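During the no-cost extension, the postdoctoral fellow (Dr. R.K.) reprocessed legacy sequence entries with the updated structure-token encoder. One reprocessed record is reproduced below for audit purposes.
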Amino acid sequence: MSPAPTSDAANSDGSLIGATVRPPGRKEAIQIARDGLKVRFTNKLFETIDVAKLESLEPAMVSITVTAANNKTSSTRKADC
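Re-encoded structure tokens follow.
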């Protein structure tokens, strides 16, 4: 049986004990930041709209309400930057 392949974080014997973990690269850092922004944006959107009231609205009105809240959240985010 051949030895397990080693990664950047593994020692020469394949052990992760005492190994250094490389920091995320630029692409990974951008993805992490993008994911965090999506979560914050979605949370803010749900704070802005009343989901219980959406259930009683017609689909067209739901779309209008969510779009308006989305635009409000987007403009607030731009002002914070």
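Residues 26-80 form one domain. The CA atoms of residues 56 and 76 lie 27 Å apart. The remaining legacy entries will be reprocessed before the final report is submitted.
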